[in-house]
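Summary for the steering committee. One of the milestones for this cycle was to obtain a three-dimensional model of the protein with NAP bound, which we needed before selecting residues for the alanine scan. The sequence and ligand used are listed below.
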Amino acid sequence: MISLTLQTLFERKDPDLRLLVIGDPVDHSLSPPMHNAALEFLHLPCRYGRLRVSPEDLREAFHLLRQQDFIGWNLTLPHKLAAVDLLDELDPLARRLCAVNTVVHKSGRIFGFNTDGKGLVTGIEEAFGCAVPSVRIALLGAGGGAGHAAARYLAELNVPSLVLLNRTRAKVERLASELADRSQSQVRAEPWEMLPKVCHEVDLIVNASTVGPAPEALAMLEERHLVFDMVYGPQETPLVHLARKKGAKSADGLLMLLHQGLLAFEIWFGKPAPAELMRRALFAAAGRAVSG
Ligand SMILES: NC(=O)c1ccc[n+]([C@@H]2O[C@H](COP(=O)([O-])OP(=O)(O)OC[C@H]3O[C@@H](n4cnc5c(N)ncnc54)[C@H](OP(=O)(O)O)[C@@H]3O)[C@@H](O)[C@H]2O)c1
């Protein structure tokens, strides 16, 4: 059963709509203003839109998208893991991370890429001026699409230690033991409730869960901590707000969105993205002063 939004897309009136972000929900995504600014600046005759697709409709959506002239699309929550099985080919990094956030469409064939891992690390390094491969990390929400890919990417960087926490612990236990075998990082899974204890032994807390930890779970946060929330929104996220109140350096996911988006643009068009223009468009859409 195709959702109404998907049906509407295929009766689409705008032939220039040739790039999408697909998610559920998706209205919050700031990818369209960021990419549309670049498309306009480079006089590329296409536009980037949002498409809400439920998990049950994802396969059907890919089937229909293949038949149209889309250049490609991004995937946001909750589709990054499920999309892996719907593609004709995976880029080696996306294969290793087992998650896809960028799809390229060429003559009915679809190719999957992952730009979230690099986008995350570049975003953290820009926000905090630290070298991610040298910090000890707790990753919250490691069982979701973004968290899963982040865990795998950080383990590839051989960070000194990586503690995976997820509401559903079973989702990260096998991942932790697999990564511990393959990486030089010390990797282990801990129950979601163990964050206060884990705080003592890490430098950086990365949140990849949609809700973030409860305020009481951050009681042990210290000024030395760095807190990066992949979530972003019009207001300061509760996690960023709390971390700031405790004197810790914190940032939301806007810089990650920027850096994963620059890489996706380069994959679609095979040329450098107009980075500063996209940064300005993204920060303006978020109602923020430009950083960096
Ligand atoms: N800034 C960026 O560029 C960027 C990039 C990627 C993702 N993100 C953001 O990161 C978040 C996750 O995205 P995703 O694609 O990984 O989504 P996802 O695949 O749906 O995963 C959701 C994650 O959140 C956890 N979660 C959901 N409800 C929870 C609750 N009540 N308590 C604790 N944990 C809960 C899930 O835990 P369970 O496994 O237990 O269900 C899972 O780990 C989204 O907000 C997304 O917008 C931002």
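Key point for the committee: The first strand starts at residue 17 and ends at 23.
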